[in-house]
């Protein structure tokens, strides 16, 4: 499980930095949207990238779906200034901890 956790952190770093880029970083922000770009499309696209990493690395579509929802909620809160960047990142790591604990407690999920 430590290996999966480490891979989840690497996947998060890849998805949040090179795969997000400047466009998605701005496009997902409904507080300051890009003109002509629906903010929800940017947020969905970014969160799906994260969900894909979690789903593949854990072998669980259920955990991938949970990551999608959590990532949408956390990033939206950050975009509105409800939480800081550091809190955003800490919450994302805590989600990874929760996915690992879920696997340890319940075993493989569909």
Fold and architecture overview:
With 110 residues, this protein is mostly helical. The chain contains five helices and no strands. The protein has helices at 2-16, 21-27, 39-58, 61-79, 85-106. Helix 1 (2-16) runs antiparallel to helix 3 and helix 2 packs across helix 3 (39-58). The longest helix is centred in the C-terminal third of the chain and has 22 residues, at 85-106. It starts with a helix and ends with a helix. The model has no long low-confidence stretch (mean pLDDT 96).
Structural features:
mainly alpha
Which range best describes the helical content: under 10%, 10-25%, 25-40%, 40-55%, 55-70% or over 70%?
Answer: over 70%
Number of strands: 0
Question: How large a portion of the residues is in β-strands, by DSSP E?
Answer: under 5%
Amino- and carboxy-terminal Cα gap: 17 Å
Number of helices: 5
Overall tally of domains = 1
- Roughly what is the average pLDDT, rounded to an integer? 96
From the alpha carbons, calculate the radius of gyration and give it in angstroms. Answer: 14 Å
What is the N-to-C order of secondary-structure elements (H for helix, E for strand)?
HHHHH
* Assembly state: single chain
Structural class of the secondary elements?
Answer: mainly alpha
Query: Overall 3D geometry?
Result: elongated
Major sheet, described briefly? none
Low-pLDDT regions: none
